[in-house]
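Recap quiz, item 2
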Amino acid sequence: MAGRNTRKRKTEVRRTKFSNSDKRESGPAVEKPWWKRRRYILGILAGLFLIYTIYLDFVIRNSFEGKRWALPAQVYARPLELYPGQKLSARQFAQELELLGYRYAYQPAEPGSFSRQEAHFYLVTRPFQFWDGREASRHLEIAFENNLIESLKDGKTGKSIALARMEPPRIGGIYPAHHEDRILIKLDQAPELLTRALISVEDRNFNTHFGLDMRAIVRALVANVKGGSLQGGSTLTQQLVKNFFLSNERTLWRKANEALMALLLEWHYSKAEILEAYLNEVYLGQDKGRSIHGFGLASHFYFDKPVERLELAEVAALVAMIRGPGYYHPVRHTERLLQRRNLVLDLMAQQGVITLVQAQSAKQTALGVIEGRKGTSSYPAFMELVRRQLKQDYREKDLTSEGLRIFTSLDPRIQSEVEASVSELVTRMDRQRNLHETLQTAVLITSTNNGEVLAMVGDRNARYPGFNRVLDAKRPIGSLVKPAVYLTALQQHERYNLMTKLKDESISLKGGDGKIWSPKNYDGSTHGDVPLYEALVHSYNLATVRLGMELGFEPIAANIEKLGVDERIPPYPSMLLGAVELSPMQVAQMYQAYASGGFKTPLRAIREVLTVEGKPLQRYSIQVEQVVDSVSIQLLNSALQEVMRSGTGRSVSRHFSDKRVLAGKTGTTDELRDSWFAGFGSDYLGIVWLGTDENKPTGLTGSSGALVIWGDIMQRLDVQSLLPYAGDQVENLPIDIKSGLVGNEDCKEVVFLAFLKGTAPKRYAECAGGGERH
Amino acid sequence: MFGIKQHLILFIILLLAACTGPGERQRSAFQVSEADKQAEDKILPGVQTSKPVLALLQQANDAARDGKLHTAESQLERALRIEPRNAVLWHYMAKLRLHQDRLGEAAGMAAKSNALAGRNKKLQADNWRIIAHARHQKGDKKGALEAQQKVEALLKE
């Protein structure tokens, strides 16, 4: 209203002025001349513009610095150590080089290059800052023979080297929990082809303009009128501004803002800084709820490789997608993208970035986009464990912005074997039992010696970053609990040994819910008096429950907790048969103690944390605590070895041509809902779980399900035979099965069992000549 | 192999020297006989210790000499990944922990070394000495005495 009134008054004044023109000279003017007033208004406008510009400048600098310097933590796998005699094949080494992005060269001279002649490699390593010092770049000559490193030499001097270390493969980053995702790259990481392609297609005057390119705007306008254009009018700087600060609406106001901000950005930052920011910011697609930003992530997402290794055709395809990642979707609109990619290649040739021949040959190649690769890390389950362990010590903000360098224990070679096994076998079992892709799995491999997590799969699709069953699926563990029951007995040397007779007969007890509980054996039968080892080897439920009743629940539950299970164990009889819900990770913690000779070793995924400058920050060092005496563990493991020789784990022998001494235990729950196996050799401990998320019957026992996968994995890893602990306090004796006395090779059936010296049967069996032992 | 052996000896001497720094004051409350110390000095890597492990021990030695115990620790862990059943490496770890005043962990490492020590009585005696020391510092006088008795029994064998 006020505005309208003012306007009205002005009109009146003006009218008055004109109608009284004769009075103009006769007296002083009441109003200022129009041009003076305009200057006044212009002044105000300029002032406002200046304030607005200063405000925009503030916004730009704040956001740009913030965006540029928020560095996510970088996570690395274990570095590969090289030394003569190491168990490593030429094929495995070649895979490691591929993972690290080493380039083949006829005569390697640059760090990150290699040449190969069958089992001989020549390479130049990249320098790398480790916790314990800097590993300089060096020339190495490596020869492999019989799946071992046969020789390791300095490539320049020809002298033998005792030990060398490769840089660790990067396996992911820790990003803020919003929907944007990216792998930050430095400008010098980007192949020159990429930056040149980008400039020639998106902004050919990038290096000379000041944020706006008038020629490009005119060119785009003309092209738009003519119809069909490859190049838009926006400079890379404008596009960056748009991505950073502005919405997608097409208004004049936004365009003006964009132009102003582009100029300001150019004012403050170098071309290199702007280009680097662009490379990391540009939107290149959508993966369900997550948007793919930057070439670093896009090259992993679409081509499964780091940006440094992109080929010409791949570079062109990514650059082609910038205009509209949805419109040029590589899977939904393959043809459309191919056409635009070829257009990009033509333009690159036209501008002399590549030769015509190169363009032609690149145009012949398929898009090569891979499908099914999801997430920034190929190892979502392991990364989740790393993230959780880090969160105990670091704030989320520090992890996502300080550029920390996290060194982990993941072994990509072991991980890839586990994935291959799971992918093949779970699919097969699922089909055989008509489970319609509902069969799920969780697999964990650790080092028996130091508790390091080496590989982890939390879903039948190892790359799927969803529910992590290793950490979060708590399921009844069935017979996996039994070793803890038998261990509690075997710790009482004066009362129990592996030949102590147990009764495998029916029993009825009052359960935790007050109801009568009458457990049964798996096959429904009873076996009368059986030696302790046999009850464990064949997983007899009745003998186990009776033994548990003799021992009492409390010492067994206390033992389980002492072994490292951070869960309250309910003191009910059904606990003795595994009505205890644990995650595969918790099971692994318990079995780690068996596998390492009675020492509790906290499972860890992280070794060290360095700052962004490579300075040591924190070590997660190995810890061992003896929780069970070595003798008792040796006795238990003797029985667990028999499980693998003649009990529920015996089918594993088909995976090995020689006699591999392994120990383990199957677990199966009611109606075959869960299929478990936990077992170990001297180097690896493996836990496998199979089941469905809906807790439905799978038709798989521990032996027919989880054990099959475990055996396949351990065969692939060439697991080594168990070696004894406990020195000379324990003796291994052949026991004649028929008499239960000490036998020899003349006896028909013997079983080798461990005894604390002085506790073994005192007599020889008839087949071994009879008589007293001395 | 000129130098490696000398370095190894130096490493052990330095580790011991390290243990006689702040550790010595704690130890003074718990007498360790001269004979025990003699035994301690003789713990060297076994003849079958591999070259890469010897190389790492040399590096660990250098780090320990410069007072960089975290670096030495990292190198000992690398060595343990190569030879996880090398009882002497676990023993060195135990000593490092002792010097870092992480007594519980030192005892754990010493016990692990014992579980792998086979018939190496000297090594076992030295490990029991570490356990005795750790127990004593924790106020477990009875446990410390038992451990010390093991030391003496082992040295007599």
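Chain A touches chain B at residues 81, 83-85, 131-133, 162-163, 447-450, 597-599, 607-608, 616, 619, 621-626, 630, 682-683, 723, 725-728 (CB under 8 Å).
DSSP finds 23 helices and 32 strands in chain A.
End of item.
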